[in-house]
Amino acid sequence: MENELPKIDLPEDLITGRLTDTTILNLYAHFPCRIKAEIFVLCRKGEVDASINLKHYHVSDSCFLTLLPGTVFQINRIEGDVDIYFGGVSSDFLRSVQPIKSVIDVSYAIKRNPCVVLRPEAIEMAQDYFEIIHKSKEVFGMKNRDLLKHLYYSLMYTLNALYKNRKVEKENLTQNERTAQDFGQLVLDNYSREKNVAFYASKLGITPAYLSSVVKQVTGRTCLDIIADMIIMDAKAQLKSTNLPIYLIADSLNFENVSFFGKYFKRHVGISPQEYRNQKDDECLA
């Protein structure tokens, strides 16, 4: 059994829908989760503040959001009435998809910027696309994976064209900004096993001192702060969304023993893991 962030997948190869109330969104409003599926969202009304891989995004009218598999996602605030189109493909379906250059290219662009603002004509096209998928599902029952793959590829080709028409952020990043960004991705991939800055510096081919200096300059925070953010976020999610004993949560995050984990958690959160678990949900949102 994997002891880490709760994972969200889809029960079918493909789903689509439209949200006009916040019931489903509220399920993601308390604690982070890791997305196993690939999710696409078009916001037409309402405002949502969300965290994607520890970075904050404000999603409102005209925003198109893509959550790639492995994304750590949490909703922080929902304001106003919502009108949201969404679609998604399951991890099982994605394993059946042959990688193509456009999919790979746009995946890198989405990792850098998962939320983009669409022009009016692109908004209309996105809405039409969601409706086409929905109608296809009604007519064909979505039993045919070849049809699903064509629908998926067409969306990824469209997203690839959309991102190519934008000024890609990475082209404008300084070397230090790229290094800090690469460090953040490495932390997302390895925080449950590695807490030592030297490990990440080695992966990037630089010294720990240089990495620490660059990350501090770019983000205003230390490397250890960023690593701790991920560890504490994961710990909080497991404490609130599972019944795992605390010693197993400590083990899943590679602490030597539950005592070390308890001290680490209390230093960053201010209370013990058990006290945090016992708190009511509305007391834990800060």
Describe the structure.
The protein has 286 residues and is α+β, with helices and mostly antiparallel strands. It folds into two domains: 7-169, Jelly Rolls (Sandwich); 173-283, Homeodomain-like (Arc Repressor Mutant, subunit A, Orthogonal Bundle). It is built from twelve helices and eight strands. It has helices at residues 23-26, 91-95, 101-112, 120-140, 145-164, 175-190, 197-204, 208-219, 223-241, 246-252, 258-269, 273-278; strands spanning 7-8, 14-19, 33-35, 38-52, 55-59, 63-67, 72-89, 115-117. Strands 1, 2, 3, 4, 5, 6, 7 and 8 form an eight-stranded mixed β-sheet that branches.
CATH class category label of the largest domain: Mainly Beta
Could you list the spans in which at least 5 consecutive residues all have pLDDT below 50? none
Q: How much is the radius of gyration in Å?
A: 20 Å
**Approximately how much beta-strand content do the residues carry?**
15-25%
If you consult CATH, what is the topology of the largest domain? Jelly Rolls
Residue share in helices?
40-55%
| Number of separate structural domains | 2
Count of runs of 4 or more consecutive helical residues: 12
Q: Spell out the helices and strands N to C.
A: EEHEEEEEHHEHHHHHHHHH
Q: CATH superfamily membership of the largest domain, which one? A: Jelly Rolls
Largest sheet: 8 strands, mixed
Content-based structural category: alpha+beta
Identify the overall geometry: globular
Q: Measure the end-to-end span.
A: 30 Å
CATH architecture annotation of the largest domain? Sandwich
* Average of the residue pLDDT scores: 85
**How many strands appear in the DSSP assignment?**
8
